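If I may wish for something, please walk me through the protein I am sending here so I can picture the backbone:
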Amino acid sequence: MKGFVLLLLAVVIMPLVVLGQTPTDTLVDGRHLWAGDTLILSRDTTTAVREAADLPGDTAVVKRKKKPFYKKIGHALHLIIDEFNAIDSSYVEPQKYKFTAMVQGTYSFESYQLTAKSGQSIRFAPKAQVRVGPYFGWKLIFLGYTIGFSQIHIDSKKQIDLSLYTSAIGIDIFYRRTGHDYNIRSVDLGEGVDTRQLNGISFDGLKVGMTGFNIYYITNHRKFSYPAAFSQSTCQLRSCGSPIFGIGYTVHTMDLDYDKLQSVVASHVPETDYQLDEGLKFSKVKYKDFSISGGYAYNYVITKNIMVAASLSLAVGYKHATGDRENFKSILRDFSFSNLNLDLVGRFGLIWNTSKWYAGSSAIIHSYNYKKSQFSTSNYFGCVNIYFGVNFGKKRHL
C-alpha cells in the first residue's frame, strides 16, 4: 500500500540524505554544474581563479558549504514527517500549535479467565484503578505520568504506554506488569457445585505480564484523522471514515500458584464430590503473539468543534509457546493452525476541540485469547479517560 511504500522509500532514501549528494556531476539550469561539493559557474571571473582551477576562461569555481551531520538528519526526518502528515484541509484542520499540555484522569480495568478442557473455569480481576496526572506533547510524541489513588499494592504494578501518531501511521508501545491484588470474580467447577462463597475472595497467587507493540496504517488518512480522535492534535471538519490495517507483536506471561488456588477453593467450597481439572494445574505460561489486523474507524462530526469517534479492529494472532531454545525457525517448523486465535481492539471517544482548547473522554479495550489442548485463557484490559488540555506555541507556517 502507499503508506508502506513511502515508509520503505524513507528507509532507502535516508542514508543518501544523511551522507549528502554523490560526487557525480549534475547540470543546473543549463549553466551551473555541481562536481561533488564544487559548483562550476559559466560566467567571467578573475584570471587567478581560472588558473587555480585549471578551467577555461569563461568558468568560475565556488565551494559549497557542507551541512552539519545533525542538520541532515533533522531535515530528512522533517520531510518524512510532513509526508505522513499530509491531509485534505477541507476535511481536516491541521494542528496550529507546536506543544500541548493536558491533565487526564484514567479508570483502568482488566480480567483474566482460565478454562480447562472439562469446562471448569475461574475468572480473576483486580480492583479497578483510578489514576490522575499531567501529560505533555510535542509534535508526534505524547508522554505523561499518573499517580494511582485506588491501588492497594501500588509498588507491585508497572505500566508504560507510548503512542506515536501521524495522519497515516500510528504506533502503540506498551509494557504492563500486574500486581498481586486480584480477586476471584466467578468460578465454575461443574454442575451441582456451589461456588458462590468464592466470589470476591482476594487471591494473590496470580501475576500477568505483557510487552509489545502495534503498528497500523490508515488508508484514507488525507480525509480521516486518527489523531483528531485520540491525540487531539488536529480537528475533523467533516464526517469521514477509513479502513485500518496493522501488524503487532506481544509477549504474554502468566504465573499461577496452583497450590494456593487449590487451598483457597477447598476452604470456601462446601464438601462435595469435585476435583480441580488437571488443565488448571500449571505454574507458568509464556507465549509470543504475532498478529495481522484489519478494521474500520469513523469520525462523526456532530457540530462544529464536537465529534464522536469509533474504531474497531479484529486481529488474527498466532500464539507460540516459548521455550529455552526457541527461535524463529522453530516457530515455522512447529506451525499449527490450532494456534491461530482472534483478538480485538476497540477505541471510542467524544471530543470537543477548538484547536487551542480541548476536552473529552475516550475508552480503549484490548481482548486476547490463547488456547491449548488442556486449557485456554482469555483476558481483556482497557481504560476510560477523561481529559482537559490546551495547545500553545503557535506555528509560524501552517
User: Anything to note?
Assistant: The two ends are 28 Å apart (CA to CA). The helical segments are 2-19, 47-53, 69-84, 226-230, 258-268, 328-333.
